């Protein structure tokens, strides 16, 4: 069986460097090299996980993303992660949290790209608190 792993997830951006800095700040990914004007790659600390590649484009984002990231906080809670994203410059787009504590929050990064923040592994009972 031949597998084709995902190497990068590419995001169009007006300012690739600024958008990459936002995502470095909220994911813990690293910027591998000095960015040039047109593209910036950030990489995860885990081997074999895809990087995020930000490419300069002139056009504006006008509709909902066809592909988006789902973020599951490795520590803490979903709500704490939402607060960290807000402090870093994201905004809430749609709030799907329920009174029982289930659900997710759809957010937008500084250039309007949607992403979701899910409950953490601890909140899902997948790891010990």
UniProtKB/TrEMBL annotation:
InterPro entries cross-referenced by the UniProt entry: Glyas_Bleomycin-R_OHBP_Dase, Glyoxalase_6
Domain of life: Bacteria
CDD domains, per the entry: VOC
SUPFAM superfamilies recorded: Glyoxalase/Bleomycin resistance protein/Dihydroxybiphenyl dioxygenase
All copies of domain Glyoxalase-like, residue ranges: 8-117
PANTHER family: CONSERVED PROTEIN, HYPOTHETICAL FUSION PROTEIN
Protein name as it appears in the record: Glyoxalase-like domain-containing protein
Organism of this sequence: Actinoplanes friuliensis DSM 7358
């Amino acid at each position: 069986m031949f597998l084709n792993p995902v190497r990068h997830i590419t995001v169009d951006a007006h300012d690739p460097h600024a958008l990459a800095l936002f995502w470095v700040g909220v994911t813990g990914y690293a910027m591998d090299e000095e960015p040039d004007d047109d593209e910036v790659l950030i990489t995860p600390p885990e081997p074999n996980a895809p990087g995020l590649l930000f490419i300069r484009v002139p056009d504006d984002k006008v509709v909902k993303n066809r592909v988006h990231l789902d973020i599951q906080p490795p520590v803490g809670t979903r709500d704490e992660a939402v607060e960290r994203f807000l402090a870093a410059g994201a905004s809430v787009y749609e709030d799907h949290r329920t009174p029982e504590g289930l659900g997710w929050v759809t957010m937008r990064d500084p250039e309007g790209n949607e992403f979701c923040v899910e409950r953490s592994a601890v909140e899902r009972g997948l790891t010990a608190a």
